[in-house]
Write a structure and sequence with these properties.
By secondary structure, this protein is mainly β. Helix content is 0%, strand content 35%. The strands form two sheets. It has a four-stranded antiparallel beta sheet with strand order 1-2-3-4, with no helix packed on it. It has a three-stranded antiparallel beta sheet with strand order 5-6-7, with no helix packed on it.
Length: 110
Amino acid sequence: LCTGPRLWVYQPPPHVSESMRPAAFADLHGDGHAEWVAGRFESLPPGFEPQSPGYVGLYDGNTGDLLGEWEGPELGSRFGEFVRRIDDVDFDAVPDLLVGAPGGAGSVHV
């Protein structure tokens, strides 16, 4: 249950049929607001050809501005259907991101 004011709203382009999965990430700026990530992937009924590989965006936790975006490996991969913050696996002092792409052969990206 949200009790505070709405800060911002994500609106996909009108021609895009997609689903979005947000997840809290980490405060990368040190401003007291955790950034967040969101996977955007097509949600298509069977028989429809995919038009997108899927995307993951990193958003500023204070302003909602897009800080970075990653594209999936191939059309229909549904890259971004699952997004999770994980511990720092490459030892750069920044938490890492696990991204699922269950379409096609299926894959997981760090």
